[in-house]
Amino acid sequence: MILLRFVARFTALGALVCPARLALGQDPVPRFSLASSPSPLTEGALGWLLLRPNAVDGVAGGQAGGEPLHFEQSLPGEYRAMVAVPIESRDSLPVAVFLAREGRIDTVRTPIPVRQAGYPREVLAVAPRFAEPVSAAAARIRRENARSRQVSLASRNHPRQWQGPFHLPRASRITSAFGAARVYNGEVRSRHLGTDFAGAVGTPVLAAGRGVIALVANFYLAGKTVYIDHGQGLVTAYFHLSRAEVTVGDTVVAGQRIGGVGQSGRVTGPHLHWVARFGVIAVDPMSLLALEKGVADAVATDSSSRTE
Description:
Elements: H1 2-13, H2 19-23, E1 32-37, E2 41-42, E3 46-53, E4 58-64, E5 67-69, E6 72-75, E7 78-84, E8 92-101, E9 104-115, E10 121-124, H3 128-131, H4 138-155, E11 174-176, E12 181-184, E13 187-191, E14 195-198, E15 204-206, E16 211-219, E17 223-231, E18 234-244, E19 251-252, E20 257-261, E21 271-278, E22 281-283, E23 299-301
Parallel strand pairs: 2-9, 10-12
Antiparallel strand pairs: 1-3, 1-23, 3-7, 4-5, 4-8, 6-7, 8-9, 11-14, 12-13, 14-21, 15-20, 16-17, 16-19, 17-18, 18-20, 18-21, 21-22
């Protein structure tokens, strides 16, 4: 039933004409039809792009938000790719699809609708030492940020590792959600680009999904940290641990214990800070939980955009 509804929506687009393609001497039909799941996508979250090329085109990849799209066949004639929407996106996300025909690669661009998330402002009154700039440690922080960034960049070229749905790293109370603008003593200093879970020191932290341990480190801000490379640009990280129970190169599965809750790094108390990134785009890690729930709500959108 899901497939029938989806095909019907794509078929309805088949009658649309793209004048730009007519001027280029191409067939008077769209090169492809594109949908998103969920529809619309949400600012600061992960989702899927669902692509149906016409019969004479091959799929050579794509790009959205500066990150490559890894299309893989999901149904006959249909491809899907994970996509991340940057947290400050407006009402649409520009998407480029690379199509192959007769030995050439064409780039076709189209916008995909985006829903604003309405992230809250979190007002915190903290001791001055936690709100003041950490200039003395700035060089160390830059080096550590570069190391974590390299994990994400390398993951773009690694095959998909995860299988099935993702899981929470802890089944405890969420103390701070993703996306909140943090106001320290009346001044906006940052956004909270992760999800915090309550926990006593030493209580279990679990891998959210299958992947390879890409980094185990002790950072100035994040404390004892584990990064898991899930492949195709998707990385999760687990901050402020009391200990790590894995080493670089280990393959872990969803639900496997990888460490314990702690209060290492620049924090005011014990908790787990859970992070998800698609390439260099930070996204709400809770959006991982919905990735494998299907594409029944996908709505096809016209891909009548310019070809380069």
